């Protein structure tokens, strides 16, 4: 008889999903490996949103521990607390539980980058005035070793008494088990000891806290003293007389800029700490270090930047082609399938011409958009964006801005909305507004579908040297967008937004290997957003457009039959008749009537009413244009399997002239490059500038510019 | 001598900072304060901006702001 075996399974190996019992804030410098660690801890159980009231992104995720579960809140990466930027202020508000609808965290996970101990320790010292436990995750120790830096943990621990230090390698998972143990017993950990770097400040803050009978927290008092124009300073006045505040300020800052004094005092202490705990080890890879230095040299770096940009545009066009063809084939066979199964009629037209042709013509561009986003995410994740800002500062200076505007403008190639939010790091308001108005000119991913459609249809796929002509035309369109943005910035900066020469203060991270998990998460998120838009906004527009284009019905089906009977035509002629009758039906539909009503405004650009109505439908969201064209040209041609680009090539005026001539297509592309067809961008500009003046200006200005550009190109082009 | 006068590769020590400008205060918050050793890493094409490193962290700044940092060159690099 077989011996009975008893299996014991450790409790944490059983997949018990607990509800989070507490909240832990994750904080650290930018590029400290914070997101990687956060992703490593929470895995797929995370969500992205905004902090209430402000447009600072908030990532939360639940981490399951041995005996509990906690919610992690990933705070934006910062160098100091309570500065001028929204990111720095939200961190303090969150830590003190002053963000509405969010509880104060009961523990803090501080991510300390071993290669940037200097700046990390400065922020950590500021945080030690809190009275919640702080766990320090020391990351990047492998990178530090490569760079010849060794950190003596016992000595560091001596200065950070009552803080738990845990070295982790988020890339390999080393130390994660220990970190999870610490997180599990976070509530039992002691509160941090007072910062050693500036005992006088902490002591005065403690006195103020006592005077307020505990209503003001020590760190609030510190913030109020350091930032005399902040709301924390206002709160200070509720408990202290102006004389007291003056007395303390004089004692601490002696009439100098408070933040400058803080930097001097705390960094002096951090500098001494560095001497004590950091020892130089031999650099492991001499060649690696030398190479990393060489690629940052001005000429190689600048050449590399342009090569990289060109690679991105080539990749967007060539890598995506097979996938796009596959989606295209799928959509058109679905469409014909529907017609075959259901026969011709209203339902099959609704499905094939409205839903499938409309949404399908946008979904085709998913591969291209994902490739573009992949590059942008990689640029962010490797720390290259900051490097690009450094390299392009000189160019931006010539239009009155600084390299700081480069980061939003590069992210604007993906989408202008996050880009406009990213302008918050620009300290000067005038420079910020000029950047906000320049960013929507950059070719965003939503412009890609119409560019790709028109280029694929009207530019031959021949190659010039190493380059694909289609890729080059696309590159030219990107340049057109950049030029539009830069000239706009220059005009604004030399008129309405004139101001002193901006500074360019930016921390430059070194290149990091991107974390595949982080990249995959971000990319999936992008795909989800795109498909959601295709399924909701674009689908609804396609349905509405189909409805307007399908009704009211003329009695043309009966006419087809009667004409077939009367004249014994061959099949080709029948198809021809069908097509012209379909076109007739379309032009007498509601959409056709509306289209002809607006047509005169666009005739000078060479657009027929179909193009004009598609463009008008695209003002809320520009990718809708492709969907509308897809629907319009499907409804308008009955017996077909041709792709949208073939239909566009065949589209003709009633007298037989082709609509899509070269000057017309070029004009349409220019219109697209410059026009502000995006309600989300308008709303974001409104929110970020806090007035309607700038979004209205941006909309009128960009629309006028696009129209004029298209007009000039068509009129001049048609006369050559 | 100021930070703006240093050449790529040179090391020096900051001995006074004119903190009257907001951009300078931001640089100080990033660690550019008195008594730290800095090294010029790169100067972009056109002579501006400048990349300097302090304790292994790189920071970029423009020449106009670099002039507000008085430095003395380390003797090792003359």
Folded structure, characterized:
The complex is a heterodimer of chains A (720) and B (78). Chain A is an alpha/beta fold. Chain A has a domain at 11-188: 3-Layer(aba) Sandwich (Rossmann fold), CATH 3.40.50.300. Helix content of chain A is 60%, strand content 8%. Chain A contains 32 helices and 12 strands. A 7-stranded mixed sheet of chain A has the order 2-3-4-1-5-6-8, sandwiched between helices. Chain A has a two-stranded antiparallel sheet with strand order 7-9. In chain A, helix 31 (679-689) packs across helix 32. The longest helix of chain A has 35 residues, at 516-550. Chain A is elongated and about 85 Å long. The model of chain A has no long low-confidence stretch (mean pLDDT 84). By secondary structure, chain B is α+β, with helices and mostly antiparallel strands. Chain B has one domain: Ferrous iron transport protein A (FeoA) (SH3 type barrels, Roll). Chain B is 15% helix and 37% strand. Chain B contains 2 helices and 5 strands, in the order βαβββαβ. Chain B has helices spanning 22-29, 63-66, and strands at 11-17, 37-43, 50-54, 57-61, 69-73. A 5-stranded antiparallel sheet of chain B has the order 4-3-2-1-5. The longest helix of chain B has 8 residues, at 22-29.
Quick structural gist:
In chain A, 60% of the residues lie in helices and 8% in strands. Chain A has 32 helices and twelve strands. The longest helix of chain A has 35 residues, at 516-550.
Radius of gyration of chain B: 11 Å
Work out the number of β strands of chain A.
12
Cα shape of chain B: globular
The run of helices and strands of chain B is EHEEEHE
> Low-confidence runs of chain A (pLDDT<50, min 5 residues)?
none
Largest sheet of chain B: 5 strands, antiparallel
CATH homologous superfamily (4th level) name of chain B: Ferrous iron transport protein A (FeoA)
Largest interface: A-B, 47 and 38 residues
Helix content bin of chain A: 55-70%
Strand residue percentage of chain B = 35-45%
CATH superfamily of the domain at 11-188 in chain A: P-loop containing nucleotide triphosphate hydrolases
* Reported CATH architecture of the domain at 11-188 in chain A: 3-Layer(aba) Sandwich
Strand order of the main beta sheet of chain A, please? 2-3-4-1-5-6-8
Structural class per helix/strand content of chain B?
alpha+beta
The share of residues in extended strands of chain A comes to: 5-15%
Please report the total strand number of chain B as a whole number. 5
The side-by-side strand order for the widest beta sheet of chain B comes to 4-3-2-1-5
Low-confidence stretches of chain B: none
Quaternary form: heterodimer
């Amino acid at each position: 008889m077989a011996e009975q075996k008893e299996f014991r399974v450790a409790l944490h190996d059983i997949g018990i999903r607990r509800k989070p019992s507490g909240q832990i804030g994750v904080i650290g410098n930018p590029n400290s490996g914070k997101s990687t660690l956060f992703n490593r801890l929470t895995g797929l159980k995370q969500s992205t949103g905004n902090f209430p009231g402000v447009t600072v992104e908030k990532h939360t995720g639940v981490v399951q521990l041995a005996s509990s579960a906690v919610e992690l809140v990933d705070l934006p990466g910062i160098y100091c607390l309570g500065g001028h930027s929204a990111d720095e202020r939200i961190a303090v508000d969150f830590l003190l539980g002053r963000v509405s609808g969010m509880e104060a965290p009961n523990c803090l996970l501080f991510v300390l980058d071993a290669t940037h101990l200097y700046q990390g320790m400065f922020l950590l010292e500021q945080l030690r005035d809190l009275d919640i436990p702080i766990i320090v995750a020391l990351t990047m120790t492998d990178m530090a070793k490569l760079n010849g830096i060794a950190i003596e943990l016992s000595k560091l621990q001596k200065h950070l008494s009552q803080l738990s230090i845990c070295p982790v390698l988020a890339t390999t998972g080393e130390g994660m088990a220990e970190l999870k143990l610490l997180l599990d017993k976070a509530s039992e950990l002691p509160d941090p000891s007072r910062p050693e770097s500036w005992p006088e400040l902490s002591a005065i803050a403690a006195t103020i806290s006592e005077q307020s009978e505990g209503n003001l927290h020590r760190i609030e008092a510190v913030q109020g003293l350091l930032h005399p124009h902040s709301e924390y300073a206002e709160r200070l006045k509720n408990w202290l007389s102006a004389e007291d505040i003056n007395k303390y300020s004089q004692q601490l800052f002696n009439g100098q800029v408070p933040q400058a004094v803080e930097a001097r005092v705390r960094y002096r202490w951090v500098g001494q700490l560095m001497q004590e705990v950091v020892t130089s080890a031999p650099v492991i890879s001499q060649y690696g270090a030398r190479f990393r230095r060489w690629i940052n040299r001005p000429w190689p770096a600048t050449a590399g930047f342009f090569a990289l940009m060109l690679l991105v545009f080539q990749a967007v066009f060539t890598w995506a082609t097979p996938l796009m063809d596959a989606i295209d084939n799928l959509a058109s066979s679905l469409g014909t399938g529907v017609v075959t199964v259901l026969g011709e009629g209203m339902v099959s037209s609704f499905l094939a011409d409205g839903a499938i042709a409309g949404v399908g013509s946008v979904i085709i561009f998913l591969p291209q958009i994902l490739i573009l986003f992949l590059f942008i995410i990689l640029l962010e994740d490797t720390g290259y964006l900051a490097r690009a800002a450094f390299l392009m500062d000189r160019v931006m200076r010539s239009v009155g801005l600084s390299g700081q505007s480069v980061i939003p403008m590069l992210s604007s190639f993906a989408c202008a909305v996050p880009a406009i939010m990213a302008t918050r790091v620009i300290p000067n308001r005038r420079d910020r507004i000029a950047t906000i108005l320049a960013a929507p000119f950059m070719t965003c991913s939503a412009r890609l579908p119409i560019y790709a459609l028109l280029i694929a249809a009207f530019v031959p796929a021949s190659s010039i040297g190493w380059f694909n002509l289609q890729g080059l035309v696309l590159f030219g369109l990107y340049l057109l967008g950049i030029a539009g943005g830069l000239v706009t910035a220059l005009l604004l900066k030399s008129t309405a937004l004139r101001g002193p020469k901006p500074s360019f203060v930016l921390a430059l991270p070194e290149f990091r290997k991107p974390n595949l998990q982080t990249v995959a998460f971000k990319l999936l998120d992008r795909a989800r957003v795109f498909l959601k838009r295709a399924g909701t906004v674009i689908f609804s527009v396609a349905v509405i457009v189909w409805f307007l284009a399908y009704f009211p019905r003329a009695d043309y089906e009966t006419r087809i039959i009667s004409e077939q009977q009367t004249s014994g035509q061959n099949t080709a002629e029948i198809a021809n008749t069908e097509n012209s009758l379909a076109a007739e039906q379309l032009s007498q539909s509601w959409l056709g009537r509306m289209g002809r009503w607006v047509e005169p405004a666009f005739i000078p650009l060479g657009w027929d009413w179909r193009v004009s109505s598609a463009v008008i439908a695209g003002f809320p969201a520009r990718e809708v244009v492709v969907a509308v064209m897809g629907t319009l040209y499907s409804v308008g041609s009955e017996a077909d399997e041709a792709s949208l680009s073939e239909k566009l090539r065949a589209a003709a005026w009633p007298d037989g002239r082709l609509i899509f001539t070269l000057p017309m297509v070029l004009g349409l592309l220019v219109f697209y490059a410059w026009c502000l067809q995006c309600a989300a961008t308008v709303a974001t500009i409104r929110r970020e500038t806090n007035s309607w003046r700038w979004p209205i200006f941006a909309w009128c200005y960009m629309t006028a510019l696009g129209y004029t550009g298209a007009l000039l190109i068509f009129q001049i082009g048609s006369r050559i | 001598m100021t930070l703006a006068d240093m050449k790529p590769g040179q090391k020096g020590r900051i001995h006074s900072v004119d903190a009257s400008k907001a951009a300078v205060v931001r640089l100080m918050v990033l660690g550019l304060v008195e008594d730290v050793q800095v090294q010029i890493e790169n100067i972009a094409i056109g002579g501006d901006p400048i990349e300097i490193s302090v304790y292994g962290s790189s920071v970029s700044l423009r020449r106009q702001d670099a002039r507000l940092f008085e430095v003395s060159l380390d003797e090792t690099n003359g």
